[in-house]
Amino acid sequence: MSYIERDSQLSAMLDDELSRSQCELLERRLCSDAKLKHQWISYSLIGAVIRNEPIVSMGFAHAVVAAIAANTTTQDLLPQPLSNSLPLPLIARKHWVLPFGSVAVAASVIVLAIFYFNLSPSDKISQNLIDTIALSEVVIPEAGMSESSIGTAENLQSHVAPVQVVSLNNSSLNSLASNVQMVNFIVAHSEFSGPLSRQNVLSYLTSSESLVEVPEGIGR
Amino acid sequence: MTSSISDLTLVKQAQSGDSRAFDALVIKYQHRIVQLVLRYVRNQAEAEDVAQDCFIKAYRALATFRGDSAFYTWLYRIAINTAKNSLSARSRSPIRFGIDDAKGDFSVEMQEYMKDNVTPESLVLTNEISVIINAAIAQLPEDLRVAIIFRELEGLSYEEIAHAMECPVGTVRSRIFRAREDIHLRLLDVFPGGLGRDRVFE
Predict the structure, then answer these.
(1) Same domain assignment for residues B84 and B153
(2) Among candidates B113, B134, B153 on the partner chain, residue whose Cβ is nearest the Cβ of A74
(3) Which residue intervals of A60-164 are DSSP H helices?
(4) Could you tell me which chain A residue has the CA closest to the CA of B121?
(5) Searching chain B, which residue's CA lies closest to the CA of residue A6?
């Protein structure tokens, strides 16, 4: 077969006007003959120019084959969508997530604690909690302190904030350990809340249960 | 529509692991695919990136191509999907070049990416090629020019062209080949090394 006939077949192959057997024969030559490949490039390019298609950069096909060989894509070099890439740090996604998330976590922990302790009436944990809180507010007369120096109950009511004097009986002492545990639980799991928030929650517990026993003449 | 014989022959060869056969398919359809992708992306450089990715995906999925449809139809669908995916991905995470990057702290991958993009030199080159080809077509004898225009622009088959030009199919085939060969030789006058990447940019 002459070169002219071979090139003519190449032109016909591009137009899909060649028989299967001739195609198979020419295809093998096309893959191995550099001159034939350059003609294939030229013929394709001529068609693209006539059809007014954009001419791609020289070496486009070379880059595709090289990328296939390297098993990489240009898309791998570009930024990937968030769903496909590694997870970013939380703060990098949304600036408001951290503070709001912290508040949400703290609130959920507090709510869980409230429900947990409210649903445990058998061991009177709520009562123990009240006792514990009251302990921190106990005013104990110091030795040698006269009754007049600390004032009467009426004086206390009028001049001092309500004070509860709790006498620790045996049951309170026995449950003190569990009270402390419970308070520690709330404090330990409320790392994102402030002291004021915790105090409010504990106050809520005492008020909601209505278990505060105020001795007559003291407090409200 | 079934796949053309020449495409199917090249596909079968590529399916057997010969990337040179796939290279021939890329050369044949690269311009058409870039034109298609340009409907979805902003510029040619981006279109070439997407087209490149399309061809790579096609190669990876080549084993699933059974020839029930034309190869170009199959490739067309991949190109459309790739372009749409690229569009949505880039809208979610646009390319950012930080201050540090301006100091030359590019990663190796980014340097490769930048290197493979369209350069002003390559644009000038493609414009020059286009001018040469158009000039060569204008200088062709009328029977050759009409034959190749019928084929490339109108997409007529040899038989249809033969009917339109009132000549045998063999004559049509010869005219189209002579037209192409004439233009090819004019291109070789300007680019003696051919139009392959390695030759032109040496």
Answers:
(1) no
(2) B113
(3) 60-70, 74-77, 90-93, 97-118, 125-136, 147-150, 153-159
(4) A57
(5) B177
Question: With b meaning 16 or more CB within 10 Å and e meaning fewer, what string describes B16-28?
Answer: eebbbbbbbbbbb
B1-12 tens-digit pLDDT: 556 888 999 999
- For residue B117, the 8-state DSSP code is S
Contacts A–B by Cβ distance under 8 A: 221
Distance CA A163, CA A169 (A): 18
End-to-end CA separation in angstroms for chain B: 42
Domain that holds residue B138: 120-200
Share of chain B above pLDDT 70, in %: 78
Encoded tokens for A77: 């070099």
Q: Is the pLDDT of residue B110 over 60?
A: no
What is the C-alpha separation between A19 and A193, in angstroms, rounded?
Answer: 81
Q: Tokens 């070099």 belong to which residue?
A: A77
Give the phi and the psi of residue A33 in degrees, each rounded to 5: -105, 115
| Mean pLDDT, rounded, of chain A | 67
**A65 and A113: one domain?**
no
Domains of chain A: total: 2
